[in-house]
Amino acid sequence: MTAAPLDSRPLPTHPHAPASHRVPHGHNRLRAAVRTFAPAVAAFAAARVAGLVVLTLWNGGGFNDLLALLAGYDGAWYLGIAADGYGGPGIGERDLAFFPLYPMLIAGLEPLLPLGARNTALLIGWVAALVAAAGLFALGSHLHDRRVGFALAVLWGCLPHSVVLTMAYTEALFTALAVWALLALLRRNWLTAGVLCLVAGLSRPTATALIGVVGLAGLIAVFRRQDGWRPWAAVVMAPLGWIGYIGWVAVQTGRIDGWFHLQRAGWGSYFDGGRYTLRVAHDLLGKASALNLVVVTLLLFAAATLVVLGLLDRQPWQLVVFGLVMVVMTVGSAGYYHSKGRFLLPAATLLLPLAVVLGRAGRAKAGTVLVALALASAWYGGHLMLIWTYSP
To answer: Where do the TM regions start and end (predicted)?
Structure first.
């Protein structure tokens, strides 16, 4: 399906313009935004709350036990960086593999909130997930209609690894920045896209997918002599966050490939063109395996299929390229096969073909599918957190 024409002109504000075309002001603008985004964001939140309820009942502990569980694994590393900075006691340089935006937010907000560091970290992640869901709704509505936007936001909350969106992890934060940056790009709001991309570059190493899309779109606009100096500004700003952190790690480690060296030597993670992923996937298909590894294998196949469907649907190239690069980086990286489903969470735009189908299916059918997916995601999230013995 061809995307709707992009038109960044403001809506008319003449006093005699039809009421549906007037731009609301002040508190009216806020109320209009709440009415617009609330259904999709609330449905997304309901899916994730269902997951937390199942996790709590399965775990058999109280609310504090649930919060401790959600702040474990990589969350412990981010909390350690927020408290002690990089290279804390007994850590060495391994924590330099974790990008700084999330721990900086924890350290900056924790003194302002009466929650403690752990709960502040979780709150940041939860708010980021809601902002990302709102962005997905806006993106789907921009390209198609509100029903597609609704389905896109809720589908993201119903993925097998969506429990991570309620943990002290960075997937929700990066997704929020990436989705709103892509939407700004489609609307040709170059400065917004550039700033969001710059910040996203401080959140996760896979921000390179977003940087490439923003940079390429800006260069195309420059070549076509569109929008004056603003595309140039986006091209310049987009990589600054990512380059800044990689450069800082190079200085700290005394080697220009410092971050990449730490990823390989400290965490066994590096880009090998997909050999590791294909080898593990091939082995899994030939023997009985842990459920999570089978699910991850199916998700990798599904992600590649969704890239092709995006091309067939003639989605904006910015979304297709972003999703494709995210898939290539996930498949092409060695190590942590069990986490590749989580690594794909920020590639939420891949779900657009499925959202279009649900958006056209009617409320009863779409609701039935989404409720079933939410319950399946809730159960699988409990399996990941309590049965699976490694990080999600």
So the answer is: 37-58, 121-141, 190-220, 232-251, 290-312, 319-337, 343-362, 369-390
Q: Which residues on neighbouring strands pair with residue 333, listed in sequence order?
A: 271
Query: Which stretches in the chain have pLDDT values below 70?
Result: 1-27, 89-91, 288
Tokens 């910015």 correspond to what residue? 318
Measured distance CA(343)–CA(285) in Å, rounded: 21
Q: Which tens digit of pLDDT belongs to each residue from 315-344?
A: 999 999 999 999 999 999 998 999 999 999
- CA distances (Å), 238 to each of 98, 151, 172, 224, 335, in order? 20, 29, 19, 20, 28
Name the token pair of 248. Answer: 């800082």
Measured on CA atoms in the order 203, 55, 46, 350, is the torsion positive or negative? positive
Residues 6+ apart with CB under 8 A from 160: 295, 299, 341, 376, 377, 380
CB atoms within 10 A of CB 115: 13
Identity of residue 301: F
For residues 194 and 237, the answer to whether their CB atoms sit within 8 Å is yes
Are 306 and 350 in contact by the 8 Å Cβ rule? The answer is yes
Find tokens 């923003």 and name the residue: 214
Measuring CA to CA, which residue among 332, 206, 320 is closest to residue 281?
A: 332
